[in-house]
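User: I'm putting together notes for a lab meeting next week and I want to include a structural view of one of the chains we've been expressing. I don't have a solved structure, so I'd like a prediction I can at least talk through. The sequence is below, exactly as it appears in our construct file.
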Amino acid sequence: MKRWVPVTCLAALLLGAPPAARVLSDPYLLSVATRAAILACAAVSLQFVVGRAGLYSFGHAAFLGIGAYALLILGSYGLDEAAISLPVAMAAGCGFALVTGWFALRTRGVTFIMITLAFGQMAYFVAQSLAAFGGDDGMSLDRRPTLLGYGWLDDRLAWHAAVLAVLGGFLLLSHALAVSRFGRALAAARENEARAAASGFDIRATRLAAYAVSGAAGAAAGWMLAVQSAFVSPSMLEWRNSGELLVMVILGGVETAAGAALGAALLLGAEEALAATTEHGRLILGPVLVLVVLAKVARNRRA
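Assistant: Thanks for the context. Below is the predicted structure for the 303-residue chain, given as structure tokens.
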């Protein structure tokens, strides 16, 4: 029963946003809910390697940026069909994860964190150098991508429903992988790497596959984030965004994908609520988040 609490809370927040926006005559509320669902997708993609494999990546924002730039670059050539640009974005994120993960997964602990940070910053500087696509200033999207030739994604409610469908797919996929032989191998390697290797599992290949899945999902979230904001810039790849994603995952709990998704929604909701009441919202939110994260870490150590 306890495992359904995050799912129920998340569904209530995201499914309740459209009627609430209509009743309050506030379309911005629907926009915030859609962004929360997209960030929840990003948090789920990161939770897969943090919670399942025990790999704390500090360069996950690179995957978001890769997905966003894939949409921007393909759109500049007239390939703004979602059925084309989204799979390409996911393939690019998967490819980047495979290449960088091959090196990063030779390390552990803090070294792994620093290497993923370095690769993330490398992607950030590459994005800055793309002068044809706005360079450091970024570039706006001319229009939203079509879906099967139609402009269905131009409607806010339809777009919100599409994002929720993707989030639901991410949650189901994460659960399916977790209970599969692949997921059990990841869990075994996280608990006792030597014993898992002795059981015949190829630990590095299994972790690399998990990292690739996480990269593809992160790129899909970046693609949706670019569609939502209609703007792409190198700031999407900054290390601070990677840190914020980690906070979302830890805030909701690294144990479940639904918890990570709920953590993303709660963090964005808190930021919006504080921004509406005071100009010093981040000054208040920062210490609160630090205390919450420390409390969760201390609880996990006791467990």
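A couple of points you could mention at the meeting. The radius of gyration is 19 Å. The beta strands are 139-140, 231-232.

User: Perfect, that's what I needed.
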